[in-house]
Amino acid sequence: MHILLIHQAFVSLDEPGGTRHYELARCLAERGHRVTVVASSVSYLTGKAGETAPAFIDRCSEGGSVTILRAHAYPALHRSFVHRVFSFFGFMISSFLIGFKVRDVDLVWGTSPPIFQGVTAWLLARLRRIPFLFEVRDLWPAFAIQVGVLRSRLLIRASEWLERFLYRHADRVVVNSPGFVSHVEARGARRVDLLPNGSDVQMFDPSGKGTAFRREHALEGKFVALYAGAHGMSNDLGILLQDAKCLSDRPEIAIVLLGDGKEKPALVKQSMRMRLTNVQFLMPVPKSGMKEALSAADACIAILKPIPLYATVYPNKVFDYMAAGRPVILAIDGVIREVVEKAGAGIFVSPGDPSALAEAIRSLAEDRERGKAMGERGRRYVEQHFDRVEQAGRLSSIMEEMV
């Protein structure tokens, strides 16, 4: 079977960012399928074009059965909301032109966010009269409305119409969190499958010490509380800076923020104004480098703004933290809290509460054996319930049924 994936934020192992789709594509290829990916030439995490950005299309083969085609997108992705929309629409058009030239496709796989690329996937599927699988990884525009990014009534109505259109016209809808199921069904999805976020456990080493990473960043002898991921409006990382202020009396505890995003420059300036000496901002590393980075952590932090809809999410980073055998400090309520608590893999703290976050870090720094036991339980739980290879098998079955 030949699968065409339209995905602006697609990331391979040598790039920073989430690699869910790369891992799934490789697993599908190992099952004998051909996967062609149309992706952006601009990093969704950093907003920067690749060093070898193509004139129009960059063809590179991954393992022979996965082909990645890079389409141009407007590069000022993180400059403002308007520039971001220009980037989305630009990719929607360029990905259609490239995807239309791909031959012998059996199924088109669209994913959201950004939701606009779902239009490209739907149109390519309908023009070819082949099945359209729509994957929902984010309840857009609902999240954007609650965060306050999307405020115009006209844009909200148009976005909600587009959301319902794609749900109704997809042959099947796949969601990555059980919290999304009722939302998409209420808006017209006819058949919904749950393919949760998870992790390729073979990518991580729970027994690793991250010695080289610690040495490189002067973290020897520190208790490292690591946040790894996007530095965006939703991530509420200002709370981590307030948390670091609460921990200023514990110089052996280091708060490390690894990643990039629109809010990072402002966070760095805020840290300087607060004169924080226990915070480090590190540039993102490719997924292939996350094994060493997570091995260097003593605890890992997952945090989102305290808005109601974020109780529906399954953040990928939590599963990677667990796969790496590290205790999770979770400042996100809802379905992901249920996973962490059922696994006994970490400590939940109320979102938006820096003092509670600081107390959780203190407790793990004072009882490292407790954190180690949490990490071991988390690793076992991901192996049993959220392994990426098993998820890819389920995805393959769904696609084969559709075709």
What does this structure look like?
The protein is an alpha/beta fold and 403 residues long. It has 2 domains: 2-198 and 387-402, Rossmann fold (3-Layer(aba) Sandwich); 201-385, Glycogen Phosphorylase B (Rossmann fold), CATH 3.40.50. It has 15 helices and 14 strands. The chain has helices spanning 20-30, 81-101, 116-128, 142-147, 153-169, 181-186, 211-216, 238-246, 264-273, 290-295, 316-323, 335-343, 354-366, 368-385, 388-402, and strands spanning 2-6, 34-40, 59-62, 66-71, 107-112, 132-136, 172-175, 192-194, 223-228, 253-258, 279-282, 299-303, 328-331, 346-348. It has an 8-stranded mixed beta sheet, sandwiched between helices. α2 packs parallel to α3 (116-128), α8 crosses α13 (354-366) and α11 (316-323) crosses α14 (368-385). The model is unreliable at 51-64 (pLDDT under 50).
What is the number of strand segments?
14
- Describe the biggest sheet? 8 strands, mixed
Q: Helical proportion?
A: 40-55%
The CATH level-2 architecture of the largest domain is identified as 3-Layer(aba) Sandwich
Number of domains: 2
Keywords:
eight-stranded mixed β-sheet, 14 strands, 2 domains, Rossmann fold, alpha/beta, 403 residues, 42% helix
How is the topology of this model organized?
Blueprint: E1 2-6, H1 20-30, E2 34-40, E3 59-62, E4 66-71, H2 81-101, E5 107-112, H3 116-128, E6 132-136, H4 142-147, H5 153-169, E7 172-175, H6 181-186, E8 192-194, H7 211-216, E9 223-228, H8 238-246, E10 253-258, H9 264-273, E11 279-282, H10 290-295, E12 299-303, H11 316-323, E13 328-331, H12 335-343, E14 346-348, H13 354-366, H14 368-385, H15 388-402
Parallel strand pairs: 1-2, 1-5, 2-4, 5-6, 6-7, 7-8, 9-10, 9-12, 10-11, 12-13, 13-14
Antiparallel strand pairs: 3-4
